[in-house]
Amino acid sequence: MPTFLADWPVGTVSRCYGAQLLQGGQVIHERALAPGTVAAALAPLRPADLAVGGKTVVVTRDPAAALRHTDPNFARRAAAAPGVLKLVHGGPDRARLDEVQAAWAALPGAGVIHERADRVVLVARGADKGAALAELRRQLGVPRARVLAAGDGPADAPMQAQAGVFVRVGAEVALAHADHTVAGPAALGRMLRQFRQGVAPPHLSAALTQMR
Predict the structure, then answer these.
(1) Which of 62, 107, 190, 196 has its Cβ near the most Cβ atoms within 10 Å?
(2) Is this structure's pTM higher than 0.90?
């Protein structure tokens, strides 16, 4: 958890781009990949993809049970792993990553996130941060106007439609339509502390009034 949230009553945690929501340590929302999809996603990967600087990681609902390509019997164990939330493949060959992305995008029930130039991520279709935030709002009965969300990458863009105020952290182009921009995490922390005290930038004052 970011240090600037250390004194906040944080009760819900999102994992794997919104594929899982935990509240009080209990799963309240989850979209896992089907075992067949995981096996099909691993099939096009070649030994050369992992030879120099490459890696493949399978993340499951158990944070301690992640599997890495260096683990014994990786492919067999990954295909049989319960509750796979995301499959990550990275490497220095950008053209090869584009090929992997295209192959994964064609899989049934799959969603692909290419947030970084050297990494592609497979999740279940519909597993994104916007859907997770919408589900959290539904379960808590919180209207959109009372939600403030923040993000620094393309995968954060789906949250904009679920938040009364969306704050861009940094200069990500995909988030250019944010309501407000701060330079980095430290600036975001200062802004959130000011919001708690009832202080907001002039163009967000009306939004702050609705949140209180």
Answers:
(1) 107
(2) no
